[in-house]
Specification:
Aspartate Aminotransferase, domain 2; globular; 2 domains; binds pyridoxal-5'-phosphate; 43% helix; single chain; 14 strands; Aspartate Aminotransferase, domain 1; 407 residues
């Protein structure tokens, strides 16, 4: 492919991202660089807390907090009543699971590429509650096979379908909307991990037909660390769903032996949350909407495609991403060199990448015969120059590092 040109908006995006000046940040799948408005909203709120008191600051910021939910809702095609702020994406996902009383013989239908923490959660439910895990097979071109999902749905009647839209360790984009249609047709609850999707591609819960969707602020959304969110559908709310650990924010203790649920998704929240980070998430959602998510989508995916092409041209590098649709995450095996060591050597040169290992995605990494991988995840504010610089540095760094990984 030809070298992606710099768009006219690039200078503005980079001016809003001071870290760009001294850093080649290609770890947006880890945590993207926050734009200035996000940093400001968090800092200003913390200043307010220290000046007038934490509880008083929250009350004084009621409208701003409501605006933050509204901005995030707009980004997801949801309504503010459907959003619950959480500590991170894993907790959000777990809260969705905590709305179900799974027991012996209940089946979770999922994929071979679901996120490690989610797989561990399914395994813990299997170990403690006798739940059965059914992993749908992949299609020959990679990614979950929708036809197999349809057949398993009819044959096994799972209690839940859980899917990770974009896995952490590869550029694969699972067919989340198609799977959502299958769940809708079968009447099976659908829990979607959209942690890596939000901010790098359009996300519309109405098209996904999901009952729950979990995400984090710090990744492609460019929000702060330590905060995530859960979308809870009206279908789930109307059915009276709530997590096992519902607290006095999600419900009111109305009588000694009774409680009344909050009418909206707040019943999935905790009483104590980091309001500064909620506001930071709102600012990140506003920023993403102003950039235009379709612009972010096209540019980040194009830069990743360019990165894949350039990585593949390095002697000894094997690009690992497989699937009919690939996103802003490019991964490569480095001829047996431990990706962690390579990542650190690149970081010493001012280039941020990351290094998923086998235990981040056991099934997928084993399928690919990779013990570790280098993950390059550009966002729209990165440039083709930065990809070129990273690829040149990688080729040099690889010369100096011994192959050790054995698959
Ligand atoms: C696909 C996916 N799901 C979930 C998570 C977990 O997010 P958090 O660390 O916010 O819980 C990650 C983190 O990398 C991820 O890549």
């Amino acid at each position: 492919m030809s070298r992606p040109p710099d768009p006219p908006a690039l200078a503005g995006w980079r001016a809003d991202t001071p870290g760009c000046e001294r850093l080649n940040h290609l770890n947006n799948a880890g945590a993207a660089l926050m734009p200035l408005p996000v940093r400001q909203s968090v800092a200003e709120y913390l200043a307010l807390e220290s000046e007038i008191g934490g509880y008083e600051a929250a009350e004084a910021s009621d409208e701003a907090l409501r605006d933050a939910y509204a901005a995030l809702a707009r980004l997801l095609g949801a309504e503010p009543r459907n959003l619950a702020m959480q500590q991170n994406s894993t907790v959000a996902f777990a809260q969705a699971f905590a709305a179900f009383d799974l027991g012996p013989g209940d089946q979770i239908l999922t994929s071979r590429a679901d996120y490690a923490s989610n797989q561990i959660m399914y395994l813990a439910l299997a170990r403690r509650r006798g739940v059965e895990i059914v992993r749908a097979p992949d299609a020959s071109e990679g990614g979950i096979d929708p036809q197999a999902v349809r057949e398993l749905m009819a044959r096994r009647r799972p209690a839940i379908l859980a899917l990770t839209w974009v896995p952490t360790n590869s550029g694969l984009v699972q067919p989340a909307e198609t799977v959502g249609e299958i769940c809708r047709d079968a009447g099976v609850p659908y829990i979607l991990d959209a942690c890596q999707a939000v901010g790098q591609m359009p996300v519309d819960v109405r098209r996904l037909h999901c009952d729950y969707l979990a995400g984090a602020s710090r990744k492609f959304l460019r929000g702060p660390r330590g905060v995530g969110f859960l979308y809870v559908s009206d279908r789930a709310l109307d059915a009276g769903a709530y997590p096992l650990t519902v607290d006095m924010h999600g419900a009111t203790w109305s009588d000694p032996d009774d409680f009344a649920l909050a009418p909206d998704a707040r019943r999935f929240e905790s009483w104590e949350i980091a309001f500064a980070l909620v506001l930071g998430t709102g600012a990140a959602a506003e920023y993403a909407l102003a950039v235009d998510i379709e612009v972010a989508h096209q540019r980040s995916w194009t830069l990743a495609r360019y990165a894949r092409e350039r990585l593949a041209a390095i002697d000894g590098v094997r690009v690992l991403d497989r699937g009919p649709v690939l996103c802003a995450i490019a991964t490569a095996e480095l001829g047996g060199r431990p990706a962690e060591a390579v990542k650190l050597a690149l970081r010493a040169r001012g280039i941020n990448t990351s290094s998923p290992a086998r235990d981040d995605a056991v099934i997928d990494m084993d399928d690919k015969g990779a013990v570790s991988a280098l993950r390059v995840s550009p966002h729209y504010y990165n440039t083709a120059d930065e990809i070129d610089a990273a690829v040149t540095a990688l080729a040099e760094v690889m010369e100096a590092i011994e192959p050790k990984d054995r698959s």
